[in-house]
Amino acid sequence: MPEIEHQSDSATKPTTDALQSESVGTQKPAWKSEELEHVHENTQKHEKVRAMFSAIARSYDLNNRLHSLWQDEAWRRRAVKMASVLPAQRVLDVACGTGDLTQAFAKRSKASKVVGVDFTQPMLDIAIEKKTKLHERIQSRIEYHQGDAQQLVFADASFDVVSIAFGIRNVQDPDKAFAEFARVLKPGGRLVVLEFAQPSFPPMRWFNTFYCATVMPITATWIAGDRSGAYKYLPKSVASFSTRQEMEARFAQAGFSEIHTTTLSLGICNCTVGIR
Predict the structure, then answer these.
(1) E-only strand ranges, the chain
(2) Is the distance from CB of 174 to CB of 149 less than 8 angstroms?
(3) 43-195+243-275 in CATH: which number?
(4) How does pLDDT run across 48-81, given as a tens digit for each residue?
(5) Is the pTM of this model over 0.85?
(6) Structural domain spans, the chain
(7) Which of 43, 67, 71, 261 is the most exposed place for a label (fewest CB within 10 A)?
(8) DSSP label of 256
(9) Could you give the CA distance from residue 97 to residue 181 in angstroms, rounded to a whole number?
(10) Measured CA angle at 73 (ends 259, 209), to 5 deg
Protein backbone atom coordinates (compact mmCIF):
# COMPACT_ATOMS: atom_id res chain seq x y z
CA MET A 1 0.00 0.00 0.00
CA PRO A 2 1.32 3.48 -0.74
CA GLU A 3 2.19 5.72 2.16
CA ILE A 4 -0.16 8.69 2.30
CA GLU A 5 -0.02 11.75 4.48
CA HIS A 6 -1.77 15.07 4.23
CA GLN A 7 0.48 17.64 2.65
CA SER A 8 0.94 20.95 4.42
CA ASP A 9 0.14 24.06 2.41
CA SER A 10 1.67 26.38 4.97
CA ALA A 11 4.44 27.51 2.65
CA THR A 12 2.12 28.64 -0.15
CA LYS A 13 -1.18 29.25 1.64
CA PRO A 14 -0.88 33.04 2.24
CA THR A 15 -0.11 33.68 -1.42
CA THR A 16 -2.73 31.19 -2.60
CA ASP A 17 -5.42 32.58 -0.30
CA ALA A 18 -4.74 36.06 -1.62
CA LEU A 19 -5.03 34.89 -5.22
CA GLN A 20 -8.19 32.91 -4.50
CA SER A 21 -9.67 35.96 -2.83
CA GLU A 22 -8.94 37.93 -5.97
CA SER A 23 -10.30 35.35 -8.40
CA VAL A 24 -13.27 34.14 -6.35
CA GLY A 25 -14.12 36.63 -3.63
CA THR A 26 -13.53 40.00 -5.22
CA GLN A 27 -13.59 38.63 -8.79
CA LYS A 28 -10.31 40.22 -9.82
CA PRO A 29 -8.30 38.24 -12.39
CA ALA A 30 -5.67 35.75 -11.27
CA TRP A 31 -3.84 36.53 -14.52
CA LYS A 32 -3.07 40.05 -15.71
CA SER A 33 -3.08 40.60 -19.46
CA GLU A 34 0.66 41.19 -19.62
CA GLU A 35 1.33 37.92 -17.75
CA LEU A 36 -0.45 35.79 -20.33
CA GLU A 37 2.40 36.02 -22.84
CA HIS A 38 4.78 34.19 -20.48
CA VAL A 39 2.57 31.97 -18.34
CA HIS A 40 5.08 29.13 -17.99
CA GLU A 41 7.85 31.46 -16.78
CA ASN A 42 5.69 33.09 -14.09
CA THR A 43 7.12 32.30 -10.65
CA GLN A 44 3.60 32.36 -9.17
CA LYS A 45 2.12 30.09 -11.83
CA HIS A 46 1.32 27.24 -9.43
CA GLU A 47 -0.64 29.46 -7.06
CA LYS A 48 -2.35 31.33 -9.88
CA VAL A 49 -3.44 28.03 -11.41
CA ARG A 50 -4.93 26.88 -8.12
CA ALA A 51 -6.84 30.15 -7.70
CA MET A 52 -8.00 29.99 -11.30
CA PHE A 53 -9.33 26.44 -11.11
CA SER A 54 -11.00 27.20 -7.79
CA ALA A 55 -12.93 29.95 -9.57
CA ILE A 56 -14.16 27.76 -12.46
CA ALA A 57 -14.59 24.42 -10.69
CA ARG A 58 -18.40 24.31 -10.79
CA SER A 59 -18.66 24.92 -14.54
CA TYR A 60 -15.50 23.01 -15.49
CA ASP A 61 -17.15 19.79 -16.67
CA LEU A 62 -19.83 21.59 -18.68
CA ASN A 63 -17.25 23.74 -20.46
CA ASN A 64 -15.09 20.69 -21.18
CA ARG A 65 -17.97 18.84 -22.80
CA LEU A 66 -19.31 21.74 -24.82
CA HIS A 67 -16.01 23.15 -26.07
CA SER A 68 -14.53 19.79 -27.02
CA LEU A 69 -17.83 18.73 -28.65
CA TRP A 70 -17.80 15.82 -26.20
CA GLN A 71 -14.45 14.62 -27.54
CA ASP A 72 -12.80 14.96 -24.12
CA GLU A 73 -14.60 11.81 -22.99
CA ALA A 74 -13.30 9.90 -26.03
CA TRP A 75 -9.75 11.16 -25.35
CA ARG A 76 -9.89 9.87 -21.79
CA ARG A 77 -11.21 6.49 -22.92
CA ARG A 78 -8.26 6.27 -25.32
CA ALA A 79 -5.82 7.14 -22.52
CA VAL A 80 -7.25 4.34 -20.36
CA LYS A 81 -6.90 1.89 -23.23
CA MET A 82 -3.30 2.95 -23.90
CA ALA A 83 -2.44 2.50 -20.21
CA SER A 84 -2.98 -1.27 -20.59
CA VAL A 85 -3.89 -1.76 -16.93
CA LEU A 86 -3.68 -5.39 -15.81
CA PRO A 87 -5.84 -7.04 -13.13
CA ALA A 88 -5.02 -5.96 -9.55
CA GLN A 89 -2.76 -3.11 -10.68
CA ARG A 90 -2.83 0.32 -9.02
CA VAL A 91 -3.29 3.62 -10.88
CA LEU A 92 -2.36 7.13 -9.77
CA ASP A 93 -4.20 9.90 -11.63
CA VAL A 94 -2.37 13.19 -11.02
CA ALA A 95 -4.04 16.59 -11.49
CA CYS A 96 -7.27 14.62 -11.51
CA GLY A 97 -9.48 17.72 -11.34
CA THR A 98 -13.13 16.75 -11.09
CA GLY A 99 -12.25 13.09 -11.43
CA ASP A 100 -13.23 12.26 -15.02
CA LEU A 101 -10.11 10.24 -15.85
CA THR A 102 -9.98 8.70 -12.38
CA GLN A 103 -13.53 7.45 -12.86
CA ALA A 104 -12.75 6.24 -16.38
CA PHE A 105 -9.93 4.06 -15.02
CA ALA A 106 -12.21 2.69 -12.29
CA LYS A 107 -14.99 1.92 -14.78
CA ARG A 108 -13.03 0.82 -17.85
CA SER A 109 -9.90 -0.91 -16.58
CA LYS A 110 -9.09 -3.84 -14.32
CA ALA A 111 -7.30 -1.69 -11.76
CA SER A 112 -7.78 -2.73 -8.14
CA LYS A 113 -7.38 0.86 -6.92
CA VAL A 114 -7.35 4.27 -8.62
CA VAL A 115 -6.02 7.18 -6.58
CA GLY A 116 -6.80 10.70 -7.76
CA VAL A 117 -4.63 13.62 -6.62
CA ASP A 118 -5.22 17.31 -7.29
CA PHE A 119 -3.77 20.61 -6.08
CA THR A 120 -7.13 22.40 -5.98
CA GLN A 121 -9.61 21.45 -3.25
CA PRO A 122 -12.75 22.85 -4.95
CA MET A 123 -12.05 20.59 -7.94
CA LEU A 124 -11.57 17.62 -5.62
CA ASP A 125 -14.80 18.45 -3.81
CA ILE A 126 -16.66 17.97 -7.09
CA ALA A 127 -14.79 14.73 -7.81
CA ILE A 128 -15.79 13.39 -4.40
CA GLU A 129 -19.39 14.48 -4.98
CA LYS A 130 -19.44 12.71 -8.36
CA LYS A 131 -17.99 9.57 -6.78
CA THR A 132 -21.04 9.21 -4.50
CA LYS A 133 -23.24 8.80 -7.59
CA LEU A 134 -21.29 5.79 -8.87
CA HIS A 135 -22.08 2.14 -8.31
CA GLU A 136 -20.75 0.98 -4.94
CA ARG A 137 -18.35 -1.43 -6.66
CA ILE A 138 -16.79 1.46 -8.60
CA GLN A 139 -16.74 3.76 -5.57
CA SER A 140 -14.72 1.24 -3.58
CA ARG A 141 -11.90 1.37 -6.13
CA ILE A 142 -11.45 5.17 -6.00
CA GLU A 143 -9.59 7.35 -3.47
CA TYR A 144 -9.00 11.09 -3.63
CA HIS A 145 -6.27 13.15 -1.95
CA GLN A 146 -5.11 16.73 -2.20
CA GLY A 147 -1.49 16.96 -3.28
CA ASP A 148 1.17 18.49 -5.50
CA ALA A 149 2.44 16.73 -8.64
CA GLN A 150 5.93 18.04 -7.83
CA GLN A 151 5.96 16.49 -4.37
CA LEU A 152 3.86 13.34 -4.27
CA VAL A 153 3.35 11.86 -0.82
CA PHE A 154 3.41 8.22 -1.93
CA ALA A 155 6.19 5.71 -1.35
CA ASP A 156 8.62 4.71 -4.08
CA ALA A 157 7.32 2.10 -6.55
CA SER A 158 3.74 2.36 -5.27
CA PHE A 159 1.88 2.29 -8.58
CA ASP A 160 1.75 0.38 -11.85
CA VAL A 161 0.35 3.28 -13.89
CA VAL A 162 0.57 7.06 -13.48
CA SER A 163 -1.65 9.29 -15.60
CA ILE A 164 -2.08 13.02 -16.00
CA ALA A 165 -4.66 14.53 -18.37
CA PHE A 166 -4.47 18.17 -19.46
CA GLY A 167 -2.54 19.00 -16.31
CA ILE A 168 1.20 18.78 -16.88
CA ARG A 169 1.34 22.21 -18.54
CA ASN A 170 -0.20 23.73 -15.39
CA VAL A 171 2.61 22.49 -13.13
CA GLN A 172 5.24 25.03 -12.08
CA ASP A 173 8.13 22.68 -12.90
CA PRO A 174 7.02 19.85 -15.24
CA ASP A 175 10.39 18.10 -15.13
CA LYS A 176 10.19 17.87 -11.34
CA ALA A 177 6.76 16.29 -11.72
CA PHE A 178 8.11 13.80 -14.26
CA ALA A 179 10.81 12.79 -11.77
CA GLU A 180 8.11 12.19 -9.17
CA PHE A 181 6.08 10.10 -11.61
CA ALA A 182 9.13 7.92 -12.22
CA ARG A 183 9.78 7.60 -8.48
CA VAL A 184 6.31 6.34 -7.55
CA LEU A 185 6.09 3.94 -10.51
CA LYS A 186 7.19 0.35 -10.22
CA PRO A 187 9.86 -0.83 -12.69
CA GLY A 188 8.00 -1.61 -15.89
CA GLY A 189 5.19 0.75 -14.90
CA ARG A 190 3.59 3.07 -17.44
CA LEU A 191 3.24 6.84 -17.56
CA VAL A 192 0.35 8.19 -19.64
CA VAL A 193 0.22 11.91 -20.45
CA LEU A 194 -2.80 13.32 -22.26
CA GLU A 195 -2.26 16.91 -23.32
CA PHE A 196 -3.47 19.46 -25.85
CA ALA A 197 -1.26 20.12 -28.88
CA GLN A 198 -0.98 22.24 -32.00
CA PRO A 199 -2.28 20.35 -35.09
CA SER A 200 0.33 19.95 -37.83
CA PHE A 201 -2.23 20.00 -40.68
CA PRO A 202 -2.39 23.74 -41.62
CA PRO A 203 -6.20 24.14 -42.05
CA MET A 204 -6.85 22.28 -38.80
CA ARG A 205 -4.17 24.29 -37.03
CA TRP A 206 -5.74 27.56 -38.24
CA PHE A 207 -9.24 26.50 -37.16
CA ASN A 208 -8.02 25.25 -33.77
CA THR A 209 -6.05 28.45 -33.12
CA PHE A 210 -8.98 30.66 -34.06
CA TYR A 211 -11.46 28.61 -32.01
CA CYS A 212 -9.27 28.37 -28.89
CA ALA A 213 -7.97 31.92 -28.96
CA THR A 214 -11.11 33.76 -30.07
CA VAL A 215 -14.36 31.79 -29.67
CA MET A 216 -13.77 29.58 -26.64
CA PRO A 217 -12.49 32.31 -24.25
CA ILE A 218 -15.68 34.30 -24.79
CA THR A 219 -18.23 31.49 -24.56
CA ALA A 220 -16.48 29.56 -21.77
CA THR A 221 -16.01 32.71 -19.70
CA TRP A 222 -19.70 33.56 -20.14
CA ILE A 223 -20.83 30.05 -19.11
CA ALA A 224 -18.53 30.07 -16.07
CA GLY A 225 -19.29 33.66 -15.11
CA ASP A 226 -15.54 33.81 -14.66
CA ARG A 227 -13.31 36.82 -14.08
CA SER A 228 -10.19 34.90 -13.05
CA GLY A 229 -8.76 34.88 -16.58
CA ALA A 230 -8.94 31.09 -16.77
CA TYR A 231 -10.13 30.86 -20.35
CA LYS A 232 -7.59 33.41 -21.52
CA TYR A 233 -4.81 31.50 -19.74
CA LEU A 234 -5.75 28.06 -21.10
CA PRO A 235 -5.16 28.71 -24.84
CA LYS A 236 -1.98 30.64 -24.06
CA SER A 237 -0.70 27.76 -21.92
CA VAL A 238 -1.29 25.29 -24.76
CA ALA A 239 0.27 27.42 -27.49
CA SER A 240 3.47 27.99 -25.53
CA PHE A 241 3.91 24.52 -23.99
CA SER A 242 5.94 21.52 -25.14
CA THR A 243 5.75 20.21 -28.69
CA ARG A 244 5.38 16.48 -29.26
CA GLN A 245 9.15 16.13 -29.58
CA GLU A 246 9.77 18.17 -26.44
CA MET A 247 7.23 16.11 -24.49
CA GLU A 248 8.92 12.87 -25.53
CA ALA A 249 12.27 14.39 -24.52
CA ARG A 250 10.86 15.07 -21.03
CA PHE A 251 9.89 11.41 -20.79
CA ALA A 252 13.37 10.30 -21.81
CA GLN A 253 15.08 12.71 -19.43
CA ALA A 254 13.05 11.29 -16.55
CA GLY A 255 14.19 7.76 -17.37
CA PHE A 256 11.31 6.44 -19.45
CA SER A 257 11.77 4.22 -22.49
CA GLU A 258 9.63 2.77 -25.30
CA ILE A 259 8.07 6.24 -25.61
CA HIS A 260 5.36 6.64 -28.21
CA THR A 261 2.77 9.31 -28.95
CA THR A 262 -0.66 8.86 -30.47
CA THR A 263 -2.27 11.87 -32.14
CA LEU A 264 -5.98 12.33 -31.41
CA SER A 265 -8.64 14.35 -33.25
CA LEU A 266 -6.32 15.47 -36.05
CA GLY A 267 -3.69 16.72 -33.64
CA ILE A 268 -5.83 18.66 -31.16
CA CYS A 269 -4.33 16.55 -28.41
CA ASN A 270 -1.67 13.86 -27.97
CA CYS A 271 -1.47 10.83 -25.72
CA THR A 272 2.13 9.94 -24.86
CA VAL A 273 3.09 6.72 -23.08
CA GLY A 274 6.44 5.63 -21.65
CA ILE A 275 7.76 2.69 -19.64
CA ARG A 276 9.56 3.16 -16.32
Answers:
(1) 90-94, 113-118, 142-146, 159-165, 185-196, 257-264, 269-275
(2) no
(3) 3.40.50.150
(4) 899 999 999 999 999 999 999 899 999 999 999 9
(5) yes
(6) 43-195+243-275
(7) 43
(8) -
(9) 17
(10) 75
